């Protein structure tokens, strides 16, 4: 699952939890109110997890790009050195 899924799920959980909490207050049901608070916390955790997944994925993509750039640069340097050595040995 993607980070976006977790962020949407978390947002929905927070909204449902807030509704349960408010309903629990309105009908004087402490258990429902507590369940709402718990669901809001679960939603916040899910949303944070989604943000973390996206940040990690972005970091991996940046690292891959940097390694590819480094590989290309090293290949170019190698070709330059090889060419220089060949010229000197002729």
From TrEMBL:
Assigned keywords, A-Z: Coiled coil
Where in the numbering of this chain does the CsbD-like domain appear?
6-58
Q: Which domain of life is it from?
A: Bacteria
Q: Which residues does UniProt call coiled coil?
A: 53-87
Record-stated family: Belongs to the UPF0337 (CsbD) family.
Full protein name: CsbD family protein
Q: Which organism is it from?
A: Zymomonas mobilis subsp. mobilis (strain ATCC 31821 / ZM4 / CP4)
The record lists the lineage as:
Bacteria, Pseudomonadati, Pseudomonadota, Alphaproteobacteria, Sphingomonadales
């Amino acid at each position: 699952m993607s980070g976006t899924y977790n962020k949407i799920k978390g947002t929905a959980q927070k909204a449902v939890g807030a509704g349960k909490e408010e309903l629990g207050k309105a009908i004087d049901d402490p258990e429902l109110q507590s369940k709402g608070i718990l669901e809001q916390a679960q939603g916040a955790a899910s949303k944070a997890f989604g943000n973390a997944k996206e940040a990690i994925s972005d970091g991996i993509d940046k690292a891959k790009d940097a390694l590819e750039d480094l590989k290309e640069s090293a290949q170019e340097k190698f070709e330059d050195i090889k060419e220089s050595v060949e010229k000197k040995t002729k």
